[in-house]
Amino acid sequence: MARPTTSGYDGIYVQLDGQPSAKLPLLLAAFRYRFEGDVEVMVQHLVDGVAVGWDELGTDLLAGAPPQVVTALTGGEQWPSRTLDHLITPDGSPPVRMTVTEQTAADQDVQWGYVLRSEGIEVISVPYADAGPVIGWDTDPRTRFSDHPAHWPAPTPSPLATSTPTARPPQTARAAASPQPRTAARR
Known about the structure:
Elements: E1 2-4, E2 9-12, H1 20-34, H2 39-48, E3 54-56, H3 67-74, E4 82-83, E5 99-101, E6 112-116, E7 120-125, E8 134-136, H4 173-177
Antiparallel strand pairs: 1-2, 2-5, 3-4, 6-7, 7-8
């Protein structure tokens, strides 16, 4: 679970990071209902407001959602979000915050990353990509999502223009309104 940065993302470890089919509906519904469409409040709660990390995200994130949405997403089950604040270190010192960035995610065995952006949730299949597609906040949380990494490819950068496009003569409205019939291609 992370916030975007200029170089990638910065977030907090979620032990049960979960696959898109489970996490995306929960996060989309939480954004819409519990956080009332305020991504900064959501990031504050899920990323900034955690001392060590998350054990798992629970149905308490669905507060305010209509019962039919909660039932569709959870089958009627309820469970709380739990943090990792109870960890005991080998030397007895207090546990440290488990920060996740684009440089550390693979080393922490994170399988899926969810970057909370202003336009939606970027879904990253960490073992296979450094970035991923963004699912808009207006997506219905009851949408079914695939868990297969091939369905979450990194976006490809748009190619840079290397030459100047040739100028075309302007078409008249009449020419645009009455296209010529197409001829068959010759081989």
